[in-house]
Amino acid sequence: MSKEGKDIIIHPGIVQSAEGDSVQVMILAQSACSHCDMKSLCAAADMKEKIIEARKNPADWFEQGEKVNVVMQRGLGSKAVLIGYFLPFLIVVGALVILIEYTGNEALSGLIALALLLPYYVIIYKMSDRFKKKFYFSVEKQ
């Protein structure tokens, strides 16, 4: 369960390794239904362990197994969802509507609309170094 502040999201984790200015932290990602009393009967409930690379202050020292907090600015999560999910959705739906009107062929329009995602994600991949500078987690001692 994450604690949420006004401008940041804090999630507890356990240090897996620390090297240089980065720390590998294991967090337990939980779906919204993971807190439900009926989760043992439901296939939709999921809890997954995830390893996150977080930045650390060079003066801090972390040991394997140490409990820490992973911190992210709230606005960055919204921007990541916008770039990763919402914009591709708009590209596909917008292209689909335009292409169906233009060609009248639904199958061809659907294939072209989906194919437009390829250059979008190639551009996102090429910009990954820029995104790593802007979208990052930091780690702090509990």
Can you tag this structure with a few keywords?
single chain, 5-stranded mixed beta barrel, alpha+beta
Provide a descriptive summary of the structure in words.
This protein is α+β, with helices and mostly antiparallel strands and 142 residues long. It has one domain (3-141). Helices cover 40% and strands 31% of the residues. The protein has 4 helices and 6 strands. It has helices at residues 74-103, 106-115, 117-126, 128-134, and strands at residues 3-4, 8-19, 22-30, 47-55, 67-73, 137-141. Strands 2-3-4-6-5 form a 5-stranded mixed barrel. α1 packs antiparallel against α2. The longest helix has 30 residues, at 74-103. The chain is elongated, with a radius of gyration of 20 Å. The model has no long low-confidence stretch (mean pLDDT 82).
Topology:
Blueprint: E1 3-4, E2 8-19, E3 22-30, E4 47-55, E5 67-73, H1 74-103, H2 106-115, H3 117-126, H4 128-134, E6 137-141
Parallel strand pairs: 4-6
Antiparallel strand pairs: 1-2, 2-3, 2-5, 3-4, 5-6
Helix pairs in contact: 1-2
